[in-house]
Amino acid sequence: MEIWINPACSKCRGALTLLDAEGADYTVRRYLEDVPSEDELRAVLDRLGLEPWDITRTQEDAAKDLGMKEWARDAATRDRWVRALAEHPRLIQRPIITADDGTAVVARSEEAVRDALSR
């Protein structure tokens, strides 16, 4: 199990606290320092069963500067979204846990963290 975190994020710290309390075996990826490639993002999106716009923090300054709220959300623009996430990792919703069964969850709630632990 791997968890993508921003240490400054309270949701990330909460997820780590819960993982530790449950004795989970996991690795931490500080994705702002160890930025995922476009291919890694596509793989995580596949595991999540989501599209890039589903995990984009559109309220971030970079998203506003890029005008992402106005971008189409379709197959033709998917690569544009993925590229923006790779170039601006602060836009990636967090935390993301990749579960041992090959799936992943955006673990913003205790229930989502527990879901990842049960997989």
SSE arrangement:
Layout (H helix, E strand, L loop, with lengths): L1 E4 L4 H12 L5 E4 L7 H11 L12 H6 L11 H10 L8 E3 L5 E3 L3 H9 L1
Parallel strand pairs: 1-2
Antiparallel strand pairs: 1-3, 3-4
Helix pairs in contact: 1-5
CATH topology call: Glutaredoxin
Percentage of β-strand residues? 5-15%
| End-to-end C-alpha gap | 10 Å
Number of discrete domains: 1
Keywords: Oxidoreductase
Pfam families: ArsC
Protein name: Arsenate reductase family protein
Family: Belongs to the ArsC family.
Write out key terms for the chains shown.
Arsenate_reductase, four-stranded mixed β-sheet, Glutaredoxin, alpha+beta, Arsenate_reductase-like, 5 helices, Thioredoxin-like_sf, 119 residues
Structure write-up:
Belongs to the ArsC family. InterPro entries: Arsenate_reductase, Arsenate_reductase-like, Thioredoxin-like_sf. This is Arsenate reductase family protein. This protein has 119 residues and is α+β, with helices and mostly antiparallel strands. The protein has a single domain (2-118), classed as Glutaredoxin. The protein has helices spanning 10-21, 38-48, 61-66, 78-87, 110-118; strands at residues 2-5, 27-30, 96-98, 104-106. It has a four-stranded mixed sheet, sandwiched between helices. β1, α1 and β2 (27-30) form a beta-alpha-beta unit. α1 (10-21) packs across α5. It is globular. The mean pLDDT is 97.
